[in-house]
Structure formats: C-alpha cells, structure tokens
Amino acid sequence: MGLWIAAVGAGACALALAPYAWTYVASAGRRRGVGSVPYRPVAVVLGAAAWEEGPSPLLARRLDLAVRLFEDGGVERIIVSGDNREVSRRETDTMAGYLVERGVPADRIDADRYGYRTWDTCVRVRDLFGVRAATMVTQSFHLPRTVALARAAGIDAVGVGDSSMGARRRSTVIGYTREVGAAVKALRDALLRPAPARTEL
User: Fold this and answer.
1) CB count, 10 Å around CB of 129?
2) Where are the domains of the chain?
3) Torsion region of 166: left, alpha or beta (phi above 0 gives left; psi -120 to 50 gives alpha)
4) Structure pTM?
5) Contacts of 170 (CB under 8 A, 6+ apart)
6) Which residue has the higher pLDDT, 170 or 40?
C-alpha cells in the first residue's frame, strides 16, 4: 500500500511539473546572456512593478539589459509592455522614461500599454506592432515561460534574463516559486491561444 501511494504521489508530482518542464524545453538554446544573444530587430521588455519614484529594482534591471542590447547593436528598437493604468503607476510610461534617461532615443521606443499578461504581450506585439522576431527581456526566472509563449505565438524569439539577486532576493525567490504555477496557465494559453484582454493600441 505504501509503495502504491508513493508511486501515485510521484506520478502526480511529475504531472504537476510537466508544464514547467515544457517552458524549459520550448526555450532550450534560446536563453542567452546579453553578450551572446543573436541579433533581433526588436527587444520586448516585460513589465513589472513601478514605484512612485520610478521602476522597481527588478524592472530597472530588465530595462538596463535592454539599454545594453540597444547600445551594442543587438536590437534596433525597444517595446516596453505592461499595465499603463494609474493603479499600476503607469508602468510603460515609467519604463519608456527610464530608457530615454539612459540615452535610448524616444523614437526607438514603442509602448504596449495593455500587456496585462505574458501571453497578451506576445500576441499584441505580434499583431499590433508586426513583430516576427524579438529578444524577450525579463528576469531569468520568468524567461523560459516568456520565450516559450512568444514562440507559441509565432515569434522567432530568443531571450535575455537578469539573474542578479540584488537587494530584492525575496522577490527573486518568490518569482521562481511562482513560475511553477504560472507554467500551467502558460501551457494552457499556448494550446488554446486566447485573444488578449485588449486588442487596441
């Protein structure tokens, strides 16, 4: 009886982790460092918390990676994607302002103001901005899911992730933990391909 329970438990665990494994398989060979990522015309920076004084440390590190990609000629344009409502402290306005302050010309930045979820971002940048190839920029814990979903949306995606723990170690640990559950929704999105919450610019 004990062996049967153990076997059932192991099977259930494997089933629960299967979507998480899918994100790693679907993004295999496409997660790179900023110095080794192949050229793509566009970088897509996924949103995260914005604070009253500017981007959160997590978000700032994503944006710093995009600045490096732009300065090194790895991308020609940057799309910032997030929730630009007041309740979210205007994420994309905050992101664009941060990039401009660091030398990225404003006319090289586009904003997806309704990137409420990762899948929504991927579909919206494909359909509304015409993106067919991109470097996805986020934290390392979020990168496998992001690249997997972008590819499921038909984008030739590679990804660069920030792996530094920095002062927000707790946020990073929470991020990795959250990805196990988020992978289930990601696989569902990849299979069902729902329309994004908003379909306008």
Assistant:
1) 18
2) 2-192
3) left
4) 0.90
5) none
6) 40
